[in-house]
Amino acid sequence: MKQKYFIDSHKAVTFLVVLGLMAWFKQWDNPTAWVYLALHGTYGILWVLKSRVFPDKQWEEDKGLFYGLYIWAGLSLYWIAPFIITSQNVQAPAWLLGLSVSLYTFGIFLHYAADMQKHVQLKYNPGQLIEDGLMARVRNTNYFGELLIYLGFGLLAMHWIPLAVIALYLVIVWFPNMLKKDKSLARYPGFAEYKRKSKLFIPFLF
């Protein structure tokens, strides 16, 4: 089975998992739980739609069942935040709800728009270095957008564990993928200059 089937299925059921946690812990009157459901639930649905409309080739590889279960286990770490919110009746202050929604909104734009740009340019201009648009100043705008998305989720729990999960993914998955991408792009003649004038991950910083 393709790797994306395991990822897509996990993203698709996140809405049901969060809803189930709300039901189990009787959190129907908790605004933070509802905001979390709205954010992470819609993100999962949008991911599945993205996978169908403009899929990422790196998730097209065939993987075995055990690797798929490994992916599921890893992605399930992101469900720690809604578990904390619902099991501990976390009530985030209004300013944090607003901040989380803003982070999520900016993240969704950067993540999906960058992926769409990459998909279109690779389709119609194959073999060309992508160094304009959302990729002009940051080589991994999509990952930066994803960071904002998951910060929007994790901050709602008001606990260090969801933030540690994000840091774990940064170190184990995201950074290695970004460095692997840089190594692959190094074959293009203009990459050295592009690398000099752009950041790896975070605008203006890194």
Secondary-structure topology with pairs:
Blueprint: H1 3-24, H2 31-53, H3 65-75, H4 80-87, H5 94-124, H6 141-155, H7 160-185, H8 191-197
Helix run count = 8
Number of strands: 0
Distance N to C terminus: 36 Å
Strand content: under 5%
From the spread of the alpha carbons, the general shape counts as: globular
Question: Would you identify the regions where 5 or more consecutive residues have pLDDT less than 50?
Answer: none
Give the SSE string: HHHHHHHH
Task: Count the domains.
Answer: 1
Radius of gyration: 18 Å
Please state the structural category. mainly alpha
Q: Let me know the average pLDDT.
A: 94
Largest sheet features: none
* Helical content class: 55-70%
Folded structure, characterized:
This protein has 206 residues and is mainly alpha-helical. The protein has one domain. It has 8 helices and no strands. Helix 1 packs antiparallel against helix 2 and helix 5 runs antiparallel to helix 6. The longest helix has 31 residues. The model has no long low-confidence stretch (mean pLDDT 94).
Outline:
The chain is an all-alpha fold and 206 residues long. It has helices at 3-24, 31-53, 65-75, 80-87, 94-124, 141-155, 160-185, 191-197.
Task: Name the descriptors.
mainly alpha, 8 helices, 206 residues, 0% strand
